[in-house]
Amino acid sequence: MAPRLPEQPTWALDVLGALDAGILLLDRHCRVLYWNGWMEQASTLTAREILGHDLFDALPNLRESRLHIAVRDTLATGAPGVLSHTLNPMLFPLRLPDGRRMVHNVVIRPLPSRASSPHSQAAGNEARCLIQVTDVTASVNRERVLREQRDARYRAIVDTAPDAIITTDTRGMVQWMNGTATRQFDYRPDELIGRSVTVLLGDDAPDWIAMAEHSGPGAAGMDAATQPVELSGRRRDGSHIDLELSMARWESEGRSFITGILRDITERRRTREELRTSALAMRQLAEQTKATLDALPAFIAVLDRSGHIVSVNRAWAEAGPETTFLGQGCIVGDDYLDHCGRGETADPRADSVMEGLRTLLSEGGPPVSAEYVTNNQHWFRCLAAPMPAGPFGGTVLMHIDVTEIKSMEAALRKLVGQKSTLLREVNHRVKNSLQLVSSLLTLQTLSLPDEGVRVHFQDARSRIEAIARVHNRLYQADQFQTIEFGTYLNELCEDLARASGGDSMCDIAVRSDVIDLPIDHAAPLGLIANELITNAVKHRGNGPAKVDVTFRREDDRLALTVSDRGPGLPSNFDIRKSRSLGMRLISSLAGQIRAGVDIDTNPQGTTFRIELPVPDEVPLLETSSPEEIKG
After folding, report:
1. Domain Histidine kinase: where (predicted)?
2. Sequence-ordered list of residues with C-beta below 8 angstroms from that of 47, at least 6 positions apart, any chain
3. How far apart are CA 142 and CA 346, in angstroms?
4. What's the pLDDT at 27?
5. What is the mean pLDDT of residues 609-631?
């Protein structure tokens, strides 16, 4: 038979029924004395079904649970109890209206006895407890969403980090890894979770656990990260990767974890090795440069922007009193310009050297080069070049003793002058010899009775005189490798016109560019012109010969043209098959100078065009003054 409920005010029941929480009242035997409407809706048990019954008989799954133990403790000791859903998952089987499991917290409070007498209170027969059930599903879900959002942001940051991040337990077993780690080591997370982290480390890598244990204590219950160390890693395919490892230990829910950040430093190590190699090469280059400068006989110094000496080579440092170059005796730290300003030189050109150096130091510009002579008649060449990229700026200065070079140059000029004199004398004698031969032929011609034979002798004399004119031009010129062919052509035509009887017999017009030809081209081309003009005069017909001679430069070609108004040549004329000595001579000489011969003949006259490539320039010999030749 159910116990009789004590009478209660109506408003108290209304208040308990209106609460947004579950309220139930248990007696000392855990029988349910009150079960409000909130509990009926959440548990699907009505008050009629459960009132008067043992709570843990009605809900047998809760017997001997934390809830059951807490209720007994409260009834026995009078101490309240609090059960949280996070630590006590086995609470009331409650559901939300939509059928989802309700997440709730439970508070158990003892109720004082209603008896007023001390005797009744001591008996303790009226021990009861009040159980309050609070729905925390919404707040838990909200916290879960916030936690998931926070975790998502954390995962996004960690997964997009440029370094591999791996978390292990204290045994070194992989618990988690970010996306960079999967790409860096070419493993999927499910292939590594639960395996030892040594799979990712090289054979020479330090012990993962030992490194974590040696990390110093930090704040907030975490161990401070160890100093980064460099080690080698191992990818899935066995290839090695250079890494920099930073580690930290941390705790969560009573468990310890180790997180390592593995940065790929392959490129950094390669760059470092390249820099080390480059630095070594630079040191070697600097040593080689210093050794080279020390081996040079020149006096070399490096000046900063203010003109102070910052370095000198061995020759400068060991220069004796016999060397009197500008600045001799200066040492590192001295003001070079001030030191040289106190000295005296035998040649005022030394002042221009210093002025150019001052300009170079103050304003920059192209390198300075000058020569000067000292009191003891030693010649020096001063070279100064800017060093804008150097650590001191300024310039590098070099004094070279060129006294011996100057003596050799004077000797060479003297030899060149003597050679020039000899060449002039040779050309003069060749011209005289050819004129002598020409005179002998003239005398021989006068003694010949046969007119046909005399003509051949006259042709031979004309050819010899053409060659003699070349040597005469060389004798008269300052240079002996080339002659100005236009002037030579004018003289040749004037001589041929006089020899042919003057204006009554021929009219020769010459037009020529100013062109220097080497002798090995001028002599053959002069003979060709002589033959063509002589033939035009000889075969002029009944009236005076009219001959036009031109010599032009056309781009990279030279053209000699001889035109006459004579009867012309046969239409089938071939210079290569001609039996005439003059034509054969023209063909042969043209071949010597790689010239082509083009003939245009018609009843009004004939035009010969001799075309040849422009010859290479011949280096000119330097002429010397008579004083230099005499020494």
Report:
1. 425-616
2. 34, 35, 36, 40
3. 100
4. 92
5. 61
pLDDT interval class at 472 (50, 70, 90)? low
Which residue from 126, 167, 180, 143 is spatially nearest to 6, judged by alpha carbons? 126
Least reliable range by pLDDT among 39-53, 348-362, 414-428, 431-445: 414-428
Q: How many residues does the chain have?
A: 631
Residue among 317, 324, 289 nearest 401 (CA): 324
Contact partners, residue 431, CB within 8 Å, separation at least 6: 468, 471, 472, 475
Residue 430 has pLDDT above 80, yes or no: no
Give the pLDDT band of residue 631 (cuts 50, 70, 90).
very low
DSSP characters over 63-86: TTSHHHHHHHHHHHH---EEE-TT
DSSP per-residue letters across 421-486: HHHHHHHHHHHHHHHHHHHHHHHHHHT---HHHHHHHHHHHHHHHHHHHHHHHHHHSS-SSEEEHH
Query: Kind and range of the H or E element at 12?
Result: helix 10-18
Alpha-carbon distance 393 to 158, whole Å?
49
Q: What is the pTM of this model?
A: 0.39
Confidence of residue 134 (pLDDT cuts 50, 70, 90): very high
Q: Which of 86, 108, 98 is nearest to 26 (CA)?
A: 108
194: left (phi over 0), alpha (psi -120 to 50) or beta: left
* Domains parsed from the chain with CATH numbers: 16-114+126-142 (3.30.450.20), 161-264 (3.30.450.20), 296-400 (3.30.450.20), 410-613 (3.30.565.10)
CB crowding 568-604: b at 16 or more within 10 Å, else e: bbeeeeebeeeeeebbebbbebbeebebebeeebeee
The number of CA neighbours under 13 Å toward the Cβ of 236 is: 11
Quote the pLDDT of residue 124: 47
Q: Where are the alpha helices (DSSP H) in 549-624?
A: 581-592
Looking at per-residue pLDDT, the higher value among 462 and 375 belongs to: 375
Tokens of 451: 């007119």
* pLDDT (average), residues 340-357: 68
Rounded CA separation 540/497 (Å): 13
Which is more confidently placed, 207 or 429? Answer: 207
Residue 611: φ, ψ to 5°: -120, 130
With a CB cutoff of 8 Å and minimum separation 6, the contacts of 172 are 196, 197, 198, 208, 209, 258
* CA 417 from centre of chain: 54
- To the nearest 10°, report the CA torsion of 327, 331, 333, 339: -30
Cβ neighbours around 97 below 10 Å, total: 8
Distance from C-alpha of 482 to C-alpha of 470, rounded to nearest angstrom: 10
**Which long-range contacts (C-beta less than 8 Å, at least 24 apart) are formed by 267-272?**
268/242, 269/230, 269/242
* pLDDT given for residue 528 in this prediction: 85
Burial 538-552 (b: 16+ CB within 10 A, else e): eebeeebbbbbbbbe
